Amino acid sequence: MKKGHQVTMKEIAKKLGVSVSTISRALKDSPELHPDTKKRIVEMAKEMNYQPNLLAQSLRISRTNTLGVIVPEITSHFFASCISGIQDYANKRGYNVMICQSNETLELEKANIRTLVSSQVDGLLISLSRETNKYDHLLDLYNREIPFLLFDRVNEDIPVSRVTFNDEGGAYQVTKHLLETGCKRVMYVSGPEDLYISKKRKEGYLHALAEFGITPDPELVKISDLTSEGNMKIANEIAFMKQRPDGVFCMIDPIALDLMFVWKPMGIKIPDDMALAGFTNNPASAVIEPPLTTVAQPGYEMGKLAVTHLLDQLEGQASDDPISIVLETTLLPRQSTKAL
Amino acid sequence: MKKGHQVTMKEIAKKLGVSVSTISRALKDSPELHPDTKKRIVEMAKEMNYQPNLLAQSLRISRTNTLGVIVPEITSHFFASCISGIQDYANKRGYNVMICQSNETLELEKANIRTLVSSQVDGLLISLSRETNKYDHLLDLYNREIPFLLFDRVNEDIPVSRVTFNDEGGAYQVTKHLLETGCKRVMYVSGPEDLYISKKRKEGYLHALAEFGITPDPELVKISDLTSEGNMKIANEIAFMKQRPDGVFCMIDPIALDLMFVWKPMGIKIPDDMALAGFTNNPASAVIEPPLTTVAQPGYEMGKLAVTHLLDQLEGQASDDPISIVLETTLLPRQSTKAL
DNA sequence: CTGTTAGCGCTTTCAA
DNA sequence: TTGAAAGCGCTAACAG
């Protein structure tokens, strides 16, 4: 299948017996042009259904008005929300967006960056893959002076702006909530230890324990690989502990959902036998039985702030110096934890 | 913030004292080139961290190797899955993807098409907005011979390929399941009547009724505007009907979830008082209490098939004649309907 | 095997 | 107020 022909300025020019530059000027509403010719041209352009070739234009002005976005996976509701916010606010300012997923691999993350850079995007918004533990590709971007920022899954050693949630604060709130509602032995089920959010949420967890004068018990921290199998293995380990926790804070909702899935048929009652809380507020967490106490992260808002800051930098409305934007989270107490 | 300089072929050429065309040839591994020069060039390109300018290349060869995708909303798990399938299989064949959302409006759908066409995408994959009831913009694409196809939310009057689910079959299966498990009065809660899927799923519903010798009762068809408020209004109407249905088939899962939400505090037991089934298999449907019987639609698979067919057409491996690809759905009986 | 040349569609000086 | 010409970075005849 071959693509049909697209009308060009040259063709309009020939039809009207004027030069291409005149067409160009008319179409961008240049003031130094006779109103009549301008009118004739604009009408003819509409009649011929002219649509500018953005490729040519971008090549000429060396700006594409396009931003690149890289997320670990698009099917996650949280990242989909971020993308939605990014797109809406990019469009509002006349920018398009190219989205790529890394599928949580470093290799694809690098490949995506290459593609987007080759496509001459004006800037990049990146959320790192779970696997990313080397940062050469980002430092390379930095050295080549390609504007970018990191959001949600960030690294603190790259000197660029980043947008994150107050993970520590959220984790502190939810742990405190568990303690306030009567839990004495609160467990933290974490993701892989080198993940930024694993660390931050653990800090919040420890902070709350400290505030309640509780000495952290290494028995009460579990590490999941974040697969369903891994989560379910941990569910069993907890169920068969000689001394079970009476409250469990999971780093992300899906862990909590998997725990519930294993515990329900075993007759473990939530929140009476164990209280349970998550983080992220997945759509499923609201409808599960009992509804899961969790921490809401406004993804759309994060996308909006991230893209707005990057565009402000690109357009000189914000300083090039890296800043850190921190969004607050909201505790959503539901029935999987006891009432105050 | 200004973007740093990108290395061009010209610069490599100057450094090596050869012509630009030689660089071009070396970098695309042309056979008619001395191995030594080729090697020198490739090495130098790597050393200088050269990355091709896709814009210039695309302008020259008048092909971008980029596809445009338009979906109603990216935060829907189903469409996110489609996008994921499209991206994976487009990338496999060396294509990039630009994604846009119409936010369910005709206006944005048109704007997205304009942008993508201006960006010179090689083809488009479109899923129509809920609002789209005029098709000039699509016919225009067709007349301008810009390759595109429709998926999931399609219209049958546009002479292009389309990829859909066997909606009728899925609806037939689920209605039959309700009837087989003992329901006598099965209701269909539809979306707006001009939606393709509203019609198709109603046909399946009616087909199953007919097979069981049941005369359709107009009382037993409700139309929702698909907002949560609309769904909840219908939930109340049903609850207060003089003669309630004993089984309800909802056009999409979210309707069923809203019905449950309203009914649960009213003490209506599912499936004993009323059996309930949906369509789409949203993630939440599996974890709600009771788990919702529904029809699974493999979105990833749909994306994969759609993009593969379009690329086959683009590259001449498939005929340009429009075809209709129909994917089968799978009934997932769960506890919201009675067991067989 | 390699260089010269033209041109993709557009914008933008510089002249007229 | 308009046109001519150069050039963005790249590819592809056509020469040599």
Would you kindly provide a written description of the structure presented here, covering whatever features stand out?
The structure is a homodimer of 340-residue chains. Chain A has helices at residues 9-16, 20-27, 35-47, 54-61, 77-92, 106-118, 136-143, 167-180, 196-211, 228-239, 253-266, 283-287, 299-314; strands at residues 66-71, 96-101, 123-126, 148-151, 162-165, 186-190, 221-223, 247-250, 275-277, 294-296, 324-327, 330-332. By secondary structure, the first copy, chain A, is of the alpha/beta class. Chain A has three domains: 9-52, 434 Repressor (Amino-terminal Domain) (Orthogonal Bundle); 65-165 and 299-326, 3-Layer(aba) Sandwich (Rossmann fold); 167-298, Response regulator (Rossmann fold, 3-Layer(aba) Sandwich), CATH 3.40.50.2300. In chain A, the strands form three sheets. In chain A, strands 2-1-3-4-5-11 form a six-stranded parallel β-sheet, with helices on both faces. In chain A, strand 3, helix 7 (136-143) and strand 4 form a beta-alpha-beta unit. The longest helix of chain A is centred in the N-terminal third of the chain and has 16 residues, at 77-92. The first copy, chain A, is elongated. The model of chain A has no long low-confidence stretch (mean pLDDT 95). The interface between A and B is large, with 56 and 56 residues. The structure holds a DNA duplex (16 and 16 nucleotides).
